[in-house]
Specification:
The complex is a heterodimer. In chain A, the strands form four sheets. In chain A, strands 10, 11, 12, 13, 14, 15 and 16 form a seven-stranded antiparallel sheet that branches. A five-stranded mixed sheet of chain A has the order 4-3-2-7-8, with helices on both faces. Chain A is globular and about 105 Å long. Chain A folds into two domains: 280 residues, no CATH class; 107 residues, Beta Barrel (Elongation Factor Tu (Ef-tu), domain 3), CATH 2.40.30. Chain A contains twelve helices and 16 strands. By secondary structure, chain A is α+β, with helices and mostly antiparallel strands. In chain A, α5 runs parallel beside α6. By secondary structure, chain B is α+β, with helices and mostly antiparallel strands. Chain B has three domains: 136 residues, no CATH class; 176 residues, no CATH class; 42 residues, no CATH class. Chain B contains 15 helices and seven strands. A five-stranded mixed sheet of chain B has the order 1-4-5-6-7, with helices on both faces. A two-stranded antiparallel ribbon of chain B has the order 2-3. In chain B, α7 links the parallel β5 and β6. In chain B, α2 packs across α8 and α7 crosses α8. Chain B is globular and about 80 Å long. Classes of the chains: A alpha+beta, B alpha+beta. At the A-B interface, α1, α3, α7, α8 and α12 of A face α5, α14 and α15 of B.
């Protein structure tokens, strides 16, 4: 946590409400995101209890598993979820634009121009919390290897037709969520805590209700952020249930033990009574009991998810009020590419994502995440003065006024311009000898090299060794983006009086060296993968899964 | 093998305590002392089984009973609580409350800040069913996993032929004594016939900050070569061979406490058996409830826990610092209780919220006092001497503080940069 964030959090404590941690919105928000508020059963991996899903704030769809241990009911839930998620995802698949790109020709090895399809927009899933992201990943893992009756007529518990496909998409969303700055699958708590600093620790910020209480305290009730957050965390009704149910997917034990468990027991009883019914008349009455018990569980699930559903949408309102940062569309294009690529993999009949990545894929994923993290850090700082302020404080950037420009030229046959620019700054950049610094010129980075620095009031400052507080005069030599001629292109050299921002970090950080293709995996990393991987087997199911 | 931890004792014997080794005014503060098991301290002759663990300190026992309140049963410390205690060794409040066996859940409710912990009965049922399954059939599956993951060269246990000693006894001390005896017999059986022994829910004792804690590992296995392994059975899944890192870490810390307690039992046998530092973590495989297992190296957790437990301020000292007649009984009026609780120094950090029943009370106090630790340890680290919210803000806005102090100077620069950035919105 940077000192500026700590300061913002302290000011939030004093003010009784959250303080801005960003001046613009750093994540893409879709016009029509799909909000998913899932609940899970305690003690079991990937056993959904229910969910509220939908794109329409006023009409969420409630999905419930009345007996979470029952495999058939779970399958039915997943089928319903697929019926909501897949049409939404697929609605983005057909609207494409053609983008020109270059590709190595497989025969000649030469770079040739190709046209590639890029989906004009991509789906966006929003869950309440980071645990929700993990839960969707888990659902993806548990369903993508399932077999439908078509794929494998022998399977004991065939999956409903579209469920394995749902698993592949959820896996893709979950995987993409690990790429810094991506927006295909977002957690509301992450979004909000990126843009606001509350008066509590980042650990407590994981509670969506408390986080919103700090950001948007119910002033009309005369509560401060801290008081409202406390109520959201701990407040209980006379029956001992939390006023603000946890955003899930885990439920409150008090809810499980006092409300849910008795309701599930009633359901189980109604079901076994129905199974034991002797004739049609009796069965009719017992069926009514069963649907009553089922409805009751549905209402319980709704009562625990609806407040969170409302909170997610409230969070979206708050975020939409912030202007979008200028480099967000660029990152969203990356998400669109990611979506398009997976659409193509699914269409071409590729097998589901493997359980464990091979060495090259894993290395590529990590390298990409590192690259995207560096890019995100740079872009957020360039987009947002408040983020930049943190970098200025740590000496990774400085802002100042140009006080002098002197033209010099290279001593080559065709002299090129190398203007010396003196910038007066109050910041304390950590400039090493000949350090490269960058400024943004018409959206592109222009490079300069550090020449010298001195205190304005006389004291000479060596490279990076200036410690006093007064303004600093930094001399920089601009080295590129001035055109080809002897005289620099118009507007490419700063002028006296300009206020500029230079960063010590690259604006468009590049990744490391290219990794080999999987066929050329070195022996140190297990060598090339053996045959084209066979279709991974489905998870074995055992009778005992049903407790 | 050497013992790095200073303050261990088992219920059926008495070992010298930290203070008997360490010189200096604050025993237990200076890190691990010399070998604890070499020289029994003054009067440290070993006492027979069944004897009360602090037979030498009836005064302390009396004092702790007074702290709990009349007629209140002591709540035993478990490994989870110990691991949490070791994570925050500076917290005297937690040390005395746990040491005295105060029911912190009841105390927190009496203070008006009830702990939000609880266990869902679904998780409970599933966890029990899984453990029963793992240990079923005379522990055959469990021993197979132990052999496969930790000791593949050992002979296979004959079908249904592992020794399963009966560990039933009355009271934790009796059970601990029974366990020590069973371990001794298992060592003999291993030497004589290379037998495998499975101890189901043994009871171990560990002296923590001067009071004994009774610990109940899920299982301990004695290998044919006479070494001991701690088995930890958890109900979170191992998915494609990997499990939630945070949960594995918590399990490893918990197991490390068991390893420490076992080493103490081992040290009193001749020759002392080796306690393996790789424990077996058993979890459900993928989405099923079939067991799968992985060896977890707990050397680091063991070393850290031993060091942290050694650093715990002795309960006796904290108790001595309390006002005479101080009592934590939940029957008392809240304001009186709050006063007593406040008289013991706490070391609140947000991490406490997940592990300590009293955390919400401590947090409310920390907030009321305006300390910066409510934001977490990292916030505290960069603020130097400044510990209060108002002091930091005053320093940042130039109303107080010495500009020559680097922390103050950094704060002022931060405040100026932040204002400048917000102004250009």
């Amino acid at each position: 946590m940077s000192l500026i964030t700590t300061l913002a959090r302290l000011e939030a404590i004093r003010a009784g409400r959250a303080q801005p941690a960003a001046t613009v919105r750093h994540r893409h928000l879709a016009e029509r995101p799909l909000v998913v508020v899932p609940l899970t059963t305690a003690g079991e991996a990937g056993a959904p209890l229910g969910a509220l899903v939908g794109c329409d704030r006023d009409a969420p769809r409630l999905l419930v598993v009345p007996q979470p241990r029952d495999r058939d009911l779970r399958s039915a839930f997943l089928a319903e979820l697929a019926d909501v998620v897949l049409p939404y995802v697929e609605s983005f698949a057909d609207d494409v634009e053609l983008v020109e790109g270059k590709e190595a020709d497989p025969e000649t090895g030469r770079q040739v121009k190709v046209e590639r399809e890029l989906c004009a927009d991509a789906p966006q899933l929003i869950v309440p919390s980071r645990a929700g992201v993990e839960f969707l990943r888990l659902l993806g893992r548990s369903t993508r290897f399932r077999r439908t009756a078509d794929q494998d007529p022998e399977t004991a518990y065939p999956a409903p037709p579209r469920v394995p496909l749902l698993g592949r998409w959820l896996t893709h969303f979950g995987e993409r969520a690990r790429v810094p700055g991506s927006s295909l699958l977002l957690a509301m708590t992450d979004l909000l805590s990126r843009h606001w600093a509350t008066g509590q620790s980042s650990l407590e910020d994981q509670h969506l209700g408390a986080l919103l209480a700090w950001i948007d305290p119910p002033v009309e009730e005369g509560l401060t952020g801290a008081e409202a957050a406390l109520r959201a965390e701990l407040g209980r009704d006379p029956e001992g249930q939390l006023l603000c149910p946890p955003a899930g997917p885990a439920t409150d034990p008090a809810f499980d033990n006092r409300l849910l468990a008795p309701a599930i027991e009633r359901y189980d009883r109604a079901r076994s009574a129905l199974a034991a019914a002797e004739d049609g008349v009796a069965a009719d009455a017992l069926l009514a009991h069963l649907s009553e018990a089922e409805r009751e569980i549905g209402e319980l699930v709704r009562s625990r998810t609806l407040p969170t559903w409302e909170n997610v949408w409230r969070g979206l309102d708050l975020l939409r009020a912030l202007p979008e940062a200028s480099r967000v569309p660029d990152r969203w294009t990356g998400d669109r590419w990611s979506f398009t690529a997976h659409r193509d993999r699914v269409a071409s009949g590729e097998p589901p994502q493997p359980r464990i990545d091979d060495a090259v894929t894993a290395a590529q994923k990590l390298a990409r995440r590192e690259r995207e993290q560096a890019k995100l850090d740079a872009q957020e700082a360039l987009d947002d003065p408040l983020v930049l302020a943190a970098r200025r404080l740590t000496g990774e950037a400085f802002v100042g006024e140009v006080v002098e420009v002197a033209m010099t030229y290279t001593e080559t046959k065709r002299p090129s311009p190398r203007p010396l620019v003196t910038v007066r700054t109050e910041d304390r950049p950590h400039l090493g000898e000949k350090a490269k610094v960058f400024r943004s010129l018409e959206g592109k980075p222009q490079t300069a090299r550090f020449v010298a620095a001195e205190e304005e009031d006389g004291g000479a400052g060596g490279a990076g060794e200036v410690s006093a507080e007064g303004p600093l005069l930094v001399v920089l030599r601009i080295v590129d983006r001035m055109g080809r001629g002897k005289e620099p292109a118009l507007g490419s050299v700063p002028e006296k009086g300009d206020r500029l921002c230079f960063t010590l970090f690259e604006h468009e950080p590049r990744g490391g060296p290219k990794l080999p293709d999987p066929e050329n995996t070195p022996w140190t990393h297990g060598g090339p993968p053996s045959d084209p991987a066979p279709l991974p087997a489905a998870d074995p199911v055992t009778e005992e899964d049903l407790l | 093998m050497s013992h790095a931890h200073p303050a261990l004792s088992v219920a059926d014997a008495r070992l010298p305590r930290v203070s008997e080794y360490l010189s200096g005014p604050r025993p237990g503060r200076g890190g691990p002392g010399p070998e604890p098991n070499q020289s029994p301290g003054p009067g440290g002759d070993r006492v027979g089984q069944g004897e009360a663990p602090y037979g030498d300190a009836p005064a302390l026992r009396q004092r702790l009973a007074e702290l709990r309140g009349p007629g209140v049963q002591a709540k035993p410390l478990d490994a989870r609580a110990l691991a949490a205690l070791a994570a925050n060794p500076g917290c005297e409040r937690r040390a005395i409350l746990d040491g005295a066996g105060v029911d912190k859940t009841a105390l927190a409710s009496a203070l008006g800040a009830p702990a939000p912990f609880g266990q869902s009965q679904f998780a409970f049922t599933r966890g029990h069913a899984f453990e029963a399954r793992v240990k079923g059939d005379g522990g055959a599956e469990l021993l197979r996993l132990v052999r496969e993951r930790l000791d593949p060269s050992a002979p296979e246990p004959p079908p249904g032929g592992a020794r399963l000693p009966d560990l039933a006894a009355t009271g934790p001390q009796g059970r601990a004594g029974r366990t020590a005896l069973a371990l001794r017999e298992a060592a003999a059986a291993a030497e004589a016939e290379g037998a495998w022994t499975l101890l189901d829910h043994p009871m171990l004792a560990l002296e923590v900050a001067g009071t004994p804690a009774f610990l109940e590992p899920d299982a301990v296995v004695v290998h044919p070569d006479g070494t001991w392994t701690v088995v930890e059975i958890k109900s979170f899944p191992m998915l494609d061979g990997s499990a939630d890192a945070a949960k594995v870490g918590a399990a490893a810390r918990q197991a490390a406490v068991y390893v420490l307690a076992l080493e103490d039992v081992a040290a009193r046998l001749d020759p002392p058996p080796r306690v393996r530092h790789r424990i077996l973590l058993v979890c459900p495989k993928d989405f099923s409830n079939l067991p799968t297992a992985s060896a977890v190296d707990v050397r680091k957790q063991r070393a850290v826990t031993a060091r942290q437990l050694g650093r715990l301020t002795r309960v006796e000292e904290i108790a001595a610092g309390l006002a005479p007649g101080a009592c934590f009984s939940p029957e008392l009026p809240a304001d009186l209780l709050a006063e007593t609780v406040e008289s013991v120094r706490a070391e609140y950090t947000p991490e406490c919220l997940a592990t300590c029943e009293l955390a919400f009370h401590c947090r409310a106090r920390a907030r009321a006092e305006g300390t910066v630790t409510v934001l977490g340890r990292s916030a505290r680290a960069e603020l130097g001497e400044l510990a209060a919210v108002e002091a930091v803000l005053a320093a940042a806005h130039g109303e107080a503080g010495d500009a020559a102090d680097p922390a103050v100077a950094a704060l002022r620069r931060a405040a100026r940069l932040r204002e400048e950035a917000l102004a250009c919105r």
